[in-house]
């Protein structure tokens, strides 16, 4: 028996097929919840409005019911160029559709990341989290169609404290994990404070986030990592925000 | 119970032990392994209607391994000797010694190397399949596998003598 066969044999003889301790009923319950969440995210505003979204394994956020579909233009927030602090290249506005859509609070942030004709966008939405009066908003990763229709893919919100406390808040990773997806969600989140740069660390490598200030509160800085810079769903080992002078916030 | 649910229960019952053991080989910790297998099965069930006609085991395996590679970025060096296996044939002392040896040498690998070793030599997958499941190139699988085997040899890739035969 060669050494690789020895390794193979050892891996097999140490199997413990007699017990796994897995709770199948619990697995299916949680699986249904994940499925519901995906379905909600995939069907846009109408479904999102009536569904509970669990983030971070604890509290349940309920997105506010939508108002009637609002035709008309959707302003797009300017992207901050991390090197200059000025507006980036994707400041655009589109003409709105007449179909139902999520109801962002403030401007929708365009990223320039494309999935065919659709563009990855981020927007703040109102949420209710039971027993957490300090959490009233969440940050959604969605896609905008050429007609301006929004499809929410993923929503993150705080599950404790206040959504405006200084510092980093919940970070959203692609909900599909590392399973290949046609619409991978870039790693994203928001920081409250005068951040001019946000830099993540992964495997000892520094990755720079793109930033956009929320139109309703410039202290709230939305950030995301372009998929070419950070593969979606790759967990960050660390993340820091720096002010315009390079000081750590 | 709906037909799809019944199929999933049958699948999960058949697959869970191997998934847990694969996770154990990657982490060296039974509790973490069960958590990881549970996560993989949750995602598998969530996508069941889409994948049940294809390769659900491959899907679960891929979710499991990538989840672990992402979660543990450093070699895990925990040897849970307090968690003795239940006896089901063979000599418990031999099995404990083999497990300790195995975890010891696997502990010298990075999470990705461990993942490649487990997929190649525990699940017996060809390199191309390992590459697909880890979303890397075949060349990366070859080089990672080669590096991993070198490290395993340096760590003593020769199983301990069964203790029972010396009694």
From TrEMBL, chain A:
Report TM segments: 40-61
Q: Spans of biased composition, class Low complexity? A: 73-97
UniProt keyword terms in alphabetical order: Membrane, Transmembrane, Transmembrane helix
Renumbered residue ranges of the record's region Disordered: 64-104
What is the protein name for this chain? Answer: Uncharacterized protein
From TrEMBL, chain B:
The UniProt record lists the keyword DNA-binding = yes
Coiled-coil annotated residue ranges, if any: none
A Pfam family found in this protein is Sigma70_r2
What superkingdom heads the lineage? Answer: Bacteria
RNA polymerase sigma factor 70 region 4 type domain: from which residue to which, for each copy? 100-152
Do you know which CDD domains this protein is assigned to? Sigma70_r4
Q: Which GO terms describe its biological process?
A: DNA-templated transcription initiation
Residues covered by the RNA polymerase sigma-70 region domain: 18-74
Q: Which SUPFAM superfamilies match?
A: Sigma2 domain of RNA polymerase sigma factors, Sigma3 and sigma4 domains of RNA polymerase sigma factors
Which InterPro entries does its entry note? RNA_pol_sigma-70-like, RNA_pol_sigma-70_dom, RNA_pol_sigma-E_actinobac, RNA_pol_sigma70_r2, RNA_pol_sigma70_r4_t2, RNA_pol_sigma_r2, RNA_pol_sigma_r3/r4-like, WH-like_DNA-bd_sf
Give a GO molecular function annotation for the protein: sigma factor activity
Q: Which UniProt keywords apply?
A: DNA-binding, Sigma factor, Transcription, Transcription regulation
Q: Which family does it belong to?
A: Belongs to the sigma-70 factor family. ECF subfamily.
Entries under PANTHER family matching the protein: ECF RNA POLYMERASE SIGMA FACTOR SIGM, RNA POLYMERASE ECF-TYPE SIGMA FACTO
What is the name of the protein in this document?
RNA polymerase sigma-70 factor, sigma-E family
Q: Which organism is it from?
A: Micromonospora chaiyaphumensis
Q: What is the lineage of its organism?
A: Bacteria, Bacillati, Actinomycetota, Actinomycetes, Micromonosporales
